[in-house]
Amino acid sequence: MSEIPAVSIVIPLYNKGPHIARALNSVLAQTIQDFEVIVVDGSTDDGAEVVRGFEDSRIQLIQEENQGVSAARNQGIAAARAELVAFLDADDEWMPRHLETLLRLRDNYPEAGAYGTARLTIMEDSTVRVSSYSDDIPPEPWEGLLSNYFRDAVLGTPPLLTSIVAVPRCILNEMGGFNIDAWYGEDADLWGRIALKYPIAFSWDGMGIYHEDALNRSSNEKKSIQEHVFVTSARNALQAGEVAPEMKKDLLEYVASRQIQIALRNLEAGRPDLVRDSLKGCKTRYQWKSKYWALFWAHAPSRIYLLLKPHKIIRVLTSCRSRIKGVSAGKQGFKTPD
């Protein structure tokens, strides 16, 4: 274990025993084999035993009391030996060229702060959904530096998600890793903080596979949230004068998307008061339908919302996305209020 691998792979593991073998097998099937795997486990199920069943010296298991996914990822980062750190959740998997693609992006675009690939999603009914990315991202087989990360994240599927990202270790150290005080949105917060300072590289090749059909997903928890952690990070950056003027309007539109996302989650958690609070400062030019739809339901009985929300959310957000994409196709810039 003395030689430094090309990439370190960090996998947080908490009660994902039924899925961790699939994740590890997808790593072992990569076209690039020069890696180490750091599994940080705080489980109460048999996940650790499954990991121990892989007789591969490149797989390291760290066991600790569960302190949340951010703490687990940060411990994995601290243990990483490679200069490039890739992330994979225990219930997701990679296509065979994923690491090859991430390393190629790193070599071709060393100025980037993070590297990501496209992804597929396995839905709860086992159907496969191809992610719909911003029209500003050139079609396959393009790869390169995104012209505007925050705009792309509003116009389509966010270009960076945890199981499809690699970040230089020096950038992770500069950013202080994942925010351990946030149980939701901690990944989007880190990618956003990186994108405020560095360009982001993206490739259609080497996709990741995101499993919404997995068990025990933390994103399914019905817990209230005071504010999306990146909304706080963006506010601090704006107040400190750390946001480039040409980035400000797109950043604010992205912030609005996070405020609306949290509002919808608070509706599910039965906290309409938090919905109204979080949307008071939400300024958006192109997501107003979603904003006012959430505000409408914040004044209605929660039981009615919970009964109707599944098909309503899809309808409203699809309408909103179509409006935004129409603006993009017309090559008009955002006009988000200051």
Low-confidence stretches are 314-320, 326-338
- The count of DSSP E runs of length 2 or more, i.e. the number of strands, is 10
Can you tell me the CATH class of the largest domain? Alpha Beta
Structural class: alpha/beta
CATH architecture classification of the largest domain: Alpha-Beta Complex
Query: What proportion strand?
Result: 15-25%
Q: What is the N-to-C order of secondary-structure elements (H for helix, E for strand)?
A: EHEHEHEEHEEEHEHHEHHHHH
CATH superfamily of the largest domain: Spore Coat Polysaccharide Biosynthesis Protein SpsA, Chain A
Total number of distinct structural domains: 2
Helix content: 40-55%
**CATH fold annotation of the largest domain:** Spore Coat Polysaccharide Biosynthesis Protein SpsA, Chain A
Protein name: Glycosyltransferase family 2 protein
InterPro entries: Glyco_trans_2-like, Glycosyltransf_2, Nucleotide-diphossugar_trans
Pfam family, one: Glycos_transf_2
Organism: Methanoculleus nereidis
